[in-house]
Amino acid sequence: MGRKMLLQRVVLYSILIMLFISLSACSRKVETKKEETKEDKIIVGFSLGTLMEDRWIRDRDIFMSKAGQAGIEVIVNNANKDSQLQYRQVQKMLEQGIDVLVIAPNDSESEVKCVKAAKERKVPVISYDRLVSNADVDVYISFDNYQVGVIMATYLVEKVPKGGYMIVSGAENDSNSKMIYKGALSVLQPYIDKGDIEILAETWVEGWTRENAYDFVSEQINTYGEKVKAIICGNDSLAWGTIDALSEAQMAEKVQVVGQDADLVACQRIVTGKQALTVYKPIKNLVEKTVEVCLSLVNGEEIKSDTTIFDGTYDVPYIVIGVEAVTKDNIDDTVIKDGFHLYEDVYQVED
């Protein structure tokens, strides 16, 4: 082999080696960039105690949308009203490396173990709409549940200042149920003390199930009959079961029934006169504030709250979202104007 040919081969091998090194460096650079991007990505675990009610499906969908717009990846789990399942799901989220846990507990007391598991991994916790008891979460973001009860009772005492009332509250293990109840009693108590209003019967409906509300109200109608003039329900699903029982007894037009959540079917009942009032809780506002707080917690920023709430052991920062009464008179200017429901759906307009 001549010197010239040998020199050419040496030059060729040198070029190939340099090219290989360059490609390897590029490959390593891309891999590093991917790793850095993954590390920079904010991941939020959204743990829901249930998706049975219409409003929780809306919470999930709006949260996914708003969080995505903020560049947040969301892992969503539905516990189907099973506290043990919710705990296992939260543990799995923590193993997946979430930066913030947003939890709407199935049970206000049982889910303290979910919060404890997060804190052991130094993951901040937002109690979403339902407060976890005795857990010292980083922040509680919810609607003004006390005011929900005030709105319900205020409407009823104006329409029915005297007569027999029933209270069909939500699950007793849900802190919101108790706040709504306290708000309602703050208005009703003076009327009760005067003897104008009599609480004929009251109950806590485990699991917020419509069927249990129906059974309870049916039983009480058999006992009290026409004495029943007004019923406060913990939410619109319980109002649905209540109105079914009243309709069966041919009393639906004679009894004022109120609920909360502004579910579509409740709004349809309102415009047809079957339900007197619902309380609109703008989920979009709740979600937007929650996403904002998620970013603040990840960035180590101080969380500014409206007030605090006692969770049974600790005073927890409480960010309060406003609520609004919805009746047949203002439904167009509230839930429909806000885009919460479409006019065609509420009024069931056919094409």
Topology readout:
Elements: H1 3-40, E1 42-48, H2 54-69, E2 72-78, H3 83-95, E3 100-104, H4 112-120, E4 125-128, E5 139-143, H5 145-159, E6 163-169, H6 175-194, E7 197-204, H7 210-224, E8 228-233, H8 236-248, E9 256-258, H9 264-271, E10 278-280, H10 283-298, E11 307-310, E12 315-321, E13 324-326, H11 343-346
Parallel strand pairs: 1-2, 1-3, 3-4, 4-5, 5-12, 6-7, 6-8, 8-9
Antiparallel strand pairs: 10-13, 11-12
How would you describe this structure to a colleague?
The chain is α/β, with parallel strands linked by helices. The protein folds into 2 domains: 40-137 and 283-321, 3-Layer(aba) Sandwich (Rossmann fold); 145-281 and 325-346, Rossmann fold (3-Layer(aba) Sandwich), CATH 3.40.50. Helices cover 48% and strands 20% of the residues. The chain has 11 helices and 13 strands. The strands form 3 sheets. The protein has a 7-stranded mixed β-sheet, sandwiched between helices. It has a 4-stranded parallel β-sheet with strand order 7-6-8-9, with helices on both faces. Helix 2 links the parallel strand 1 (42-48) and strand 2 (72-78). 42% of the residues are buried. Mean pLDDT is 90; it is low at 3-7 and 19-38.
